[in-house]
């Protein structure tokens, strides 16, 4: 696929009008993803009450989305490279509209879970297509970094705004949490058709989609998450069986990719130690973040009996990342480099979860606020720099694959984190339903995000002493990201 180099004047740190339009549309799409997930997060207790779902079933409303997202992300990235980034983005945006609407009409739990899964699949094709449009539209270096940090900041803003909007909409009906993204998606689609340039279709002569690879890796991910989620309430033999089946599918995937003429994942890309490290960091950070959100919402609404609006406002402090991502983070990256900024974000996440670990039945919001604020700062220091670092230095023809790997890590981590926290919560919660037994379950489950953040800090620490890349000055900092960050 030809690179739309006309959107950016070579050697300048300013974006052309076409580039600004493309970035606006793609930021709209990632904002949609953020607001969609956040709104659903605060609506979960209302959905459980209306549809009569258990805690185990309820987490699948979230996990089905992230499984569809993470399971098909690699195929989505490959499809963007093979069939055209614009084509994939628009087609799957249409699918997102259709199945998000179906979720709002669901009257049975299984229908809602199915709709969320397919919506996640649609997002799995949209996200790497959108990210690769950015990374091939903007030259590698200062301008691309600016675009990616704006992109990350808008994603954070979507999540923050979604927390409040979701609480407000749920007071009317949780179904509006699904109908609102439909309206936003239609607006984004209309703008996308006119703003995103049409380019010649990629030459697919002799190329094909690796469906076997897609099926095996998706099956492996699904079985692994299912193993974690059901480990506390099925016998050991069932757990061992599903874990073994997941492992065998992963092995089959690796073997298939080694011999496939056109693999879904070129295994050679995994020899890039930095890329692997950043993807592991994305996996564990996302897992901890989503696990904490899930348990915090249950604590606030089911034990403290806070309303959906009160809950969303309590979590709003996390939204400080929407301000810091495009303002403070670029300055820190300029001075310290992506590796050190990511490491600092991981350490702040450890501190934030540790502070919440002994949450009590009568905690004031002032006692919770430091955790929410620190977690928002941690997100701002981690998400954007991970997005830059995980795609930096990757050849243009594999930008879709690199984006697919990164988003697979984020979503696979989210699914694992949700399932692990749910499993621990169920296992540690007593059957009498008392305040103390509920607290025991929350305390145990909060060890999941804390452990994930510690692992993320350890993994990211390995990159602190590495040699500078070709885009970094001798001090180990990234190529300069112009600040203040603004489009135009």
Total helices: the number is: 16
Stretches where pLDDT is under 50 for at least 5 consecutive residues are 1-11, 467-488
Could you describe the largest sheet, including whether it forms a barrel? none
Oligomer: single chain
Indicate the radius of gyration in whole angstroms.
21 Å
Give me the count of strands.
0
What is the share of helical residues?
over 70%
| Fraction in beta strands | under 5%
Instruction: Report the end-to-end length measured between terminal Cα atoms.
Output: 26 Å
Principal-axes shape call: globular
User: How do the SSEs run, as a string of H and E?
Assistant: HHHHHHHHHHHHHHHH
Averaging pLDDT over every residue, what do you get?
A: 82
Structural class, from helix and strand content? Answer: mainly alpha
């Amino acid at each position: 696929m030809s690179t739309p180099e006309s959107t950016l004047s070579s050697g300048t740190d300013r974006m052309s009008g076409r580039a600004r339009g493309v970035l606006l549309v793609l930021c709209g799409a990632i904002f949609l993803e953020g607001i969609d997930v956040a709104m659903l997060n605060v609506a979960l207790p209302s959905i459980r009450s209306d549809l009569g779902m258990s805690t185990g079933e309820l987490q699948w409303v979230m996990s089905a989305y992230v499984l569809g997202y993470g399971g098909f992300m690699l195929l989505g990235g490959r499809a963007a490279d093979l069939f055209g980034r614009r084509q994939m983005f628009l087609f799957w945006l249409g699918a997102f509209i259709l199945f998000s609407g179906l979720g709002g009409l669901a009257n049975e739990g299984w229908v809602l879970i199915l709709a969320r899964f397919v919506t996640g699949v649609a997002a799995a094709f949209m996200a790497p297509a959108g990210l690769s449009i950015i990374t091939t539209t903007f030259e590698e270096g200062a301008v691309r970094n600016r675009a990616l940090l704006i992109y990350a900041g808008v994603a954070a803003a979507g999540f923050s705004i979604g927390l409040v909007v979701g609480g407000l909409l749920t007071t009317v009906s949780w179904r509006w949490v699904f109908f609102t993204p439909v309206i936003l998606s239609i607006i984004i689609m209309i703008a996308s058709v006119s703003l995103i340039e049409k380019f010649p279709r990629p030459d697919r002569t002799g190329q094909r989609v690796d469906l076997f690879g897609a099926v095996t890796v998706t099956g492996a991910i699904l079985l692994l998450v299912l193993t974690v989620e059901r480990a506390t309430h099925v016998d050991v033999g069932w757990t061992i069986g599903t874990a073994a089946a997941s492992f065998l599918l992963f092995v089959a995937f690796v073997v298939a990719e080694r011999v496939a003429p056109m693999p879904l994942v070129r295994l050679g890309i995994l020899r890039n130690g930095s890329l692997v490290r950043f993807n592991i960091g994305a996996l564990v950070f996302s897992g901890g973040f989503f696990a904490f959100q899930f348990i915090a919402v249950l604590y606030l609404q089911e034990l403290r009996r806070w309303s959906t609006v009160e809950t969303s406002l309590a979590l709003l402090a996390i939204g400080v990342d929407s301000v810091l991502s495009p303002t403070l983070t670029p300055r820190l990256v300029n001075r310290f480099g992506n590796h050190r900024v990511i490491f600092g974000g991981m350490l702040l996440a450890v501190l934030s979860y540790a502070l919440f670990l002994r949450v009590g039945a009568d905690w004031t919001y002032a006692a919770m606020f430091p955790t929410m604020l620190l977690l928002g700062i941690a997100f701002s220091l981690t998400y954007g720099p991970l997005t830059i670092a995980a795609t930096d230095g990757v050849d243009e023809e594999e930008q879709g694959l690199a984006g697919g790997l990164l988003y697979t890590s984020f979503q696979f981590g989210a699914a694992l984190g949700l399932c692990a926290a749910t499993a621990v919560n169920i296992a540690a919660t007593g059957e009498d339903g008392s305040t103390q037994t509920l607290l025991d379950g929350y305390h145990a489950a909060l060890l999941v995000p804390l452990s994930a953040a510690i692992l993320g800090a350890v993994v990211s620490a390995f990159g602190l002493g590495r040699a500078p890349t070709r885009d970094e000055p001798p001090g180990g900092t990234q190529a300069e990201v112009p600040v203040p960050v603004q489009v135009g």
